Each structure stands twice: as structure tokens, then as C-alpha cells.
Fold this protein.
Amino acid sequence: MQKGFGKTATQALLIILLSGVVGIVYNATSSKGISLIGHWAEADSTGFLIPLSYQKGDSLITLAEAITKYQSQNTIFLDARYKEDYELGHVRGAINLSFDDFYELLPEVEERLSKEKEIVTYCGEIDCDISLFLGRLLKEEGYERVMVMVQGWEGWTKAGLPTSKGPNP
């Protein structure tokens, strides 16, 4: 019985390896293949990276536009990442409203939000879509002036912009 199991396990492993190789070869040769390394976002005609989850109605802004809004001090920045990631570092003054805990956390932060002010959501990096999803949820709740900073936390820190650590202010 042990001998038969070993043969079956070996065959299963070979099938898994062969499937992986076929998948990688297909992905590499397909016109619809995805990059296995780097960002999965697509660039528009100006070179601006558009997340794959983009939908009509999503308002995307560049890092430069986000900086201008940040400097105006009339824009609310919302960090869509998990609390643990937020506490390790975030845009200075940003409020943590984790997409995954949106309905639980919204009542806690809602008094600090304004439907009249612009809101900029961000997450970890260009490939991160949770800031898009957070923006859509906010729009469903009546916050119409929501924009998504596509470059996210990664772009913000690479540019050397103001950051903080710790819990929600």
C-alpha cells in the first residue's frame, strides 16, 4: 500500500509541475498575459498608470495632484490599508479607514469626514486596488468628492513627503 501511495504522490507532483510550466509558457506567449514581475497597472496615453480594477466613475489623481491637495489643507486623506500597516507609517494627518473593516470603522471616523470636502484615498502601491474600492464605498455613502491617489503610500514615501507613525490621530 505504501508503494502505491508513493507512485500516486509522484504522479500528482509531476502533474502540478507540468501545469505550472504550461501556465507560465501560456502567460508569456499570450497577448493577454500578465507581468509576473513589476506592477500590473496599465498606462494611458500620457503614461499615467491606471489600476486594472478601474471603472468609469472612479476619480484618479496623480501624486503631484495629491501633493497640491495635501498642501491646501482642505482635503481629507484616508488610508485604506489595515490598521497595522497604517500604524507603521502613513501620510501625515491621514485617517485610517481600512477597506476591509469599512462598515465597522465608518461610525468611528464619520464625524471627522465631510461631504463638502475633497477626500483622497490611498493604499500601499500602484497595484493596490483597495483605495479604489474604498472610494466606491464612500460614494455609496454620499461622499461625492472622492479621489484615489494611484501611486499610494509607496509613491508618497519615495517622494519624501510628510509621514507619521502610530494610531489614528
